Amino acid sequence: MRYVALLVVFLSFIKGFGEESYEFIGTHFIASYYECCSESLNDKEYLTSVIEEAVEASGASLLDKVGFQFTPQGVTILALLAESHASIHTYPEKQACFVDLFTCGNSCDYENFHDVMQKALKAKHVSKTVLERQ
After folding, report:
1. pTM (2 d.p.)
2. Catalytic residue among 36, 97, 104, 108
3. Is 84 designated active site?
4. How far is residue 118's CA from residue 116's CA, in Å, rounded to a whole number?
5. Active site (annotated) includes residue 89
6. What is the mean pLDDT of the chain?
7. Pick the catalytic residue: 36, 58, 84, 97?
8. Where are the domains of the chain?
């Protein structure tokens, strides 16, 4: 039932794509965070709260989220946004993770998202790319 509700929200969101007022653009923020706190990278509940905080800081609208704890270690969190999605895939054994934020339109700020993520993960090094999509 949960997925049916998400599908209805998603379909009502994409229905607006054909309207004159919608500007067909997007920003795709892609980052690799290194020398992070290993314990944080293996804590699903903590990472879920971090991605929620980062999404809120970006100005995006969180619709839902799902996460998975791998054995023996590692976590993946995916946040479904009204604007698109955010994700984190962690490698505690490498003290690293991959982070992704894609937002449609121009109302969200990936820099605020990044600031929250970098601080929460205590990343000492970051490699990031921003793609403007049209």
Report:
1. 0.82
2. 104
3. yes
4. 6
5. yes
6. 88
7. 84
8. 2-133
